[in-house]
Amino acid sequence: MDRLGDVRLILFSEGVEAIHPFLLEKFPHLASLPVLSLHDSAAVARFLENELSRAIPPLYGLVLAGGKSERMGMDKSTIDYHGLPQRDYVYNLLQEFCDETFLSLRPDQSEEGPLPVLPDVFLGLGPYGALLSAFQAYPDKAWLVAACDLPLLSAEALQFLTRNRDPSKPATAFISPENALPDPLLAIWEPKSYLTLLQFLAQGFSCPRKVLINSDTHLLQAPDPDWLLNVNTQEEYKRVMAAIGKAHN
Q: Is 32 exposed, middle or buried (0-12, 13-18, 19+ CB in 10 A)?
């Protein structure tokens, strides 16, 4: 009887139409709960779907724009692939699917624009530090993380990722077409992954992919491998720009 403290729904079996008086005497709040027939499977399913949706952590977006871009020789987050700086482009994409979106920047980067910023507080750890900094600021949110060096990232890719999200897992990630390993930089990290990230860091590891590999990650096969195309060098940049130019002609 003492375990009836978190009842959300009353189900009546056939022929039962009221809560037993002794239950109401001990638990008066039961009278205010929704009541359904055990045989009304459609109504029960709707109730459960609503409860599950309320339990799913809100989704925030994080644009990884704090890299030093040493191999590229210029700031990858400011490259114009689509008529505006890439970090603005990725920010706009994430905003379509997230309740709030932030730029992740190093403390030494200046950002005077209108976009909200989450500066790294875990320094020298790259994307790992950015993710930890985001969870430290909002530990009860899930984070849709997207890197700035994915020039062919699209709304279609984010729609596929969010629709196939599994909030019961620590993370939802694409399988990289390059090495068949989970891609940590276009992924949804659930709040439950925060502790795991901290535990790995305490053991001396700061590779987000290693966390995904060693966790019960929900893995997705990208319908379009180009969504995950990574550009880090001038040669790769020129090839992608040529491909984008052809696509627009």
A: exposed
- Asked if residues 199 and 38 have their Cβ atoms less than 8 Å apart, the reply is no
Domain that holds residue 189: 57-243
Same domain, 137 and 98: yes
- Within a domain: 2: no
Q: Does 34 lie in the same domain as 112?
A: no
CA distance 74 to 226: 22
pLDDT tens digits, one per residue of 189-225: 999 999 999 999 999 999 999 999 999 999 999 999 9
Q: How far apart are CA 104 and CA 91, in angstroms?
A: 11
Q: Are residues 145 and 211 in the same domain?
A: yes
d(CA 120, CA 190): 19
* Range in 22-26, 120-124, 185-189, 194-198 the model is least confident about: 22-26
Q: What angle do CA 129, 181, 136 make, to 5 degrees?
A: 20
Residues 47 and 71 in one domain: no
pTM reported for the whole predicted model = 0.78
| 6 falls within a domain | no
